[in-house]
Design brief:
Layout (H helix, E strand, L loop, with lengths): L2 H24 L4 E9 L7 E9 L9 E7 L2 H34 L24 H11 L6 E4 L4
Antiparallel strand pairs: 1-2, 2-3, 3-4
Helix pairs in contact: 1-2, 2-3
């Protein structure tokens, strides 16, 4: 194994570790997100981030989303993964803040009135759709490193 091969292997392991941690933050009870890092020798854009989304529980091998993000350098791929992780953390904080405000106003605490419904009363349905513009803007501000090419992959 040459020094170059060893170096690429170390970079791949480091990138995969970061990508796995990032993907885990996007995984929910309904959707499993996986990131796989790859290097394609001789390609113009050799550094790849494969993004895979599948439904849970998983009954078959099909994916909701299969996409490959192609980068010229490992640094670009690393920045993209770091920005995704940062965006997810900020997005979660934004949603949590919104939920606190909505719940406070529906409980009557915002006006200084104690809740008349009691602790076991069902909560009103909360629509996160109102947050969509703010969430998209947040993502656009944080996720600035773009891949040079994105390829949507077929389910096979």
């Amino acid at each position: 194994m040459t020094n170059s091969e060893r170096e690429i292997g170390q970079i791949l392991r480091s990138l995969q570790s970061a990508a796995t941690l990032c993907a885990n933050t996007f995984t929910t009870a309904r959707v499993k997100v996986e990131y796989q890092v790859a290097f394609s020798i001789g390609a113009a854009l050799p550094w790849r981030l494969l993004e895979l989304h599948s439904r849970r529980p998983r009954k078959d091998k099909s994916y909701v989303l299969r996409r490959m993000h192609c980068f010229r350098t490992p640094e670009g791929l690393r920045r993209s993964v770091q920005e995704r992780a940062k965006w997810k953390a900020c997005d979660q904080a934004l949603v949590a803040s919104y939920l606190v405000k909505v719940r406070a106003s529906t409980d009557g605490f915002a006006q200084g009135e104690p809740s008349q419904q009691g602790a076991c009363a069902p909560r009103a349905s909360i629509d996160l759709g109102e947050l969509r513009p703010a969430r998209l803007e947040l993502r656009a501000q944080i996720c600035v490193t773009r891949p040079e090419r994105v390829v949507d992959l077929l389910n096979g």
